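Thread: Newbie trying to understand structure tokens

Hi all, I'm a second-year student working on a class project, and my supervisor (Dr. K.) asked me to get a predicted structure for one chain before our next meeting. I've only ever worked with sequences, so writing a 3D structure as a token string is new to me. If someone could post the tokens and maybe explain what I'm looking at, I'd be very grateful. Here's the chain:
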Amino acid sequence: METKYNFVKNKIKSQILQGFIQPHQKVGSETELMKEYEVSRHTVRKAIDELVNDGWIYKKQGAGTFCADRSALKSGTASQQTKNIAVITTYFSDYIFPSIIRGIEGYLSKNGYQVTLFSTNNNIEQERRCLEAVLQQGFDGLIVEPTKSALPNPNINYYLNLERTGIPYVMINAYYEELEPTHLIMNDVEGGRIQTRHVLDLGHQYVLGFFKNDDIQGTKRMKGFIKAHRESGIPLSPKNIITYTTETKETVPVEELRQHLTNTSELPTAIVCYNDQLALMLLDVIRDMKLSVPEDISVVGYDDSFLSVASEVKLTTVKHPKEEMGKEAGRRIYNFIEQKLAPSRHFEMTPVVYEPKIMIRNSTQGLGVKEIN
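---
Reply by user tm_fold:
Sure, no problem. This is what the structure looks like when written as tokens:
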């Protein structure tokens, strides 16, 4: 359990890291802090003393305590660079993330930089902790994949403080629209459209779409799904769109597919998936229901990950640039640092948007076709 003085100490640090307390701005008086955090004077004094010892604040005799200017510790000369870039991804141990990280590390290590990895597990609170670590440890730059990018993000203040302190950042796979940062993304609307057009053009009309709706990639792929139906003149029932979140990704898609395969008089003939990971999970459900892919149901994934060829069913899927995206993110953050561009200049850079390409394998076939040539 966190001690009371540590609680106060961490709250004040968080206020500083979010930029709510600026360098040389007065921190609240002992009485104000006691009232705000509902603790004793002794607790406040202990928290303040530790913050002073750690270099977060300083005291002026007779005037009170003030926020220290920690950016002065990294005043911008090359000799003071740590040559260390932070990389924050939603996950890094599996799926497409090792390939993205390999691209980042390959470019930066070739240019004399080290990479330190952080993972948020697509959790807002964990993203906050990662951003606080980046701000505290004085990295030269940050490459970040936004967390739950389709939802309002309470951590925007940390990004604004990165700008204030001169730490450049680049976003990959998604970006927070409020910030309009330099970013590298896929054209996910087009990706969802070509996923769906592929099966519609094969004659499928009862198509289920499964989309993760707390990440912007999922909402854009769903937009492409709807767009493809409109283009094809095929009516789309709302019940054919299944959405889920980070917290429900292991349960909702499986339960919904089982219901569609058991509780309806007509079976869906094709499934469009948010990613390959989900496609493999749904393949297991289809097998359990004694159905075959693609003979009974065609399945399309997204990302062209190693999972797309990991089972006997090789997934038709949309190609993700992965390592190429990582290299370009590394190149951009390197240039920001080496060229010493002002933070305002970073946001003038043209974003990189990768156009999708469908990789056709044996998980899809024409409606009524029993064998693929």
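A couple of things are worth pointing out once you decode it. The longest strand covers residues 84-89. Residues 171 and 183 are 5 Å apart (CA to CA). Feel free to ask follow-ups in this thread.
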